[in-house]
Amino acid sequence: xxxxxxxxxxxxxxxxxxxxxxxxxxxxxxxxxxxxxxxxxxxxxxxxxxxxxxxxxxxxxxxxxxxxxxxxxxxxxxxxxxxxxxxxxxxxxxxxxxxxxxxxxxxxxxxxxxxxxxxxxxxxxxxxxxxxxxxxxxxxxxxxxxxxxxxxxxxxxxxxxxxxxxxxxxxxxxxxxxxxxxxxxxxxxxxxxxxxxxxxxxxxxxxxxxxxxxxxxxxxxxxxxxxxxxxxxxxxxxxxxxxxxxxxxxxxxxxxxxxxxxxxxxxxxxxxxxxxxxxxxxxxxxxxxxxxxxxxxxxxxxxxxxxxxxxxxxxxxxxxxxxxxxxxxxxxxxxxxxxxxxxxxxxxxxxxxxxxxxxxxxxxxxxxxxxxxxxxxxxxxxxxxxxxxxxxxxxxxxxxxxxxxxxxxxxxxxxxxxxxxxxxxxxxxxxxx
Length: 433
Known about the structure:
- The chain is of the alpha/beta class.
- The protein is about 40% helix and about 10% strand.
- It has helices at about 1-30, 55-60, 60-70, 80-90, 100-110, 125-130, 165-175, 180-185, 230-240, 260-280, 295-300, 310-315, 355-360, 365-380, 385-405; strands spanning about 45-50, 75-80, 95, 115-120, 135-140, 160-165, 185, 210-215, 245-250, 285, 300-305, 320-325, 345.
- It starts with a helix and ends in a 26-residue tail after the last helix.
């Protein structure tokens, strides 16, 4: 058995090496037709050092950044070859593939008007960019959430953070010692909501459309929020069996990465949806694997999600939400905010989800609570309000940058020696398939 396991490991490593090499060759061929931007032409960069499995984190920013690029030149920076290929194909903004540290240094050296660098996650490789001064490093996150992740001490690594609303400010004040929230956290709401325009891939009828969008299983006890293995099969099964609901199942792309049982449960839920559609094609249940998040939030009648940023993506629309209560007692739940008064779905009640779905659509108390917390987390959610605040925060930091640029105008920028150190972007080559 040990020899068999060693052989399987060797085959997997060899397969990943071949896949990685082929991906790099594809990148090299495409780079020929992708010149670097003119010197001093870029004002804002979005630094994304992750592999393709986490592209969902930057996809939700495509439209707000595209709108912002009408006023300021914005580029995306990728350190991973597979990610670069995908961004070249789908992103509405220029993508630069800067694999080597020397390439990153040269970019910074040539772009002396680079004022802001945005980060959508807490990847450790962000520190390779943090070392460059003469720009503001800004954490914009990939969604509002009451996860412990959203009040991490890592916030202090950034010059500033863009946050959604009052709830985020309160969260940071409670969690972080000696962090100047008033100075370093700028409220912008949820600008993505201003771009929810896509039409759903089904025709409206008398069915209640329920979005079930669970998160993954997490990589540590405190982050075990995923519900696919605990709630998923029972709740989807009940909705499929009702005959009056349409299920939109949107699993997290990392489902099963850390715990195979989640991956297996995910497969069974997908199979149940396929079987239900075969039995009744008019039902139109959907297994949603699309990269964009749009109509799923705005067009569905009820959303069921785990403790994750999806709660707050949905909360920004003001439409009904049910939250699965984590089955693991190790999962950290901050009940001081919306989660203290939300509509919970316990494991033992997953099979009775139809009753919960009916209640959240009609209960005046539930709807009033939803509205109150939507305003607390996002402030003014009228169309265009968040975009205005986002652009206002950007302009404030650009003005702040200009002040400091004048103060340090006689000082030479320290960038580096353009060495040939390479970023370790193949840390998880299996994600580059």
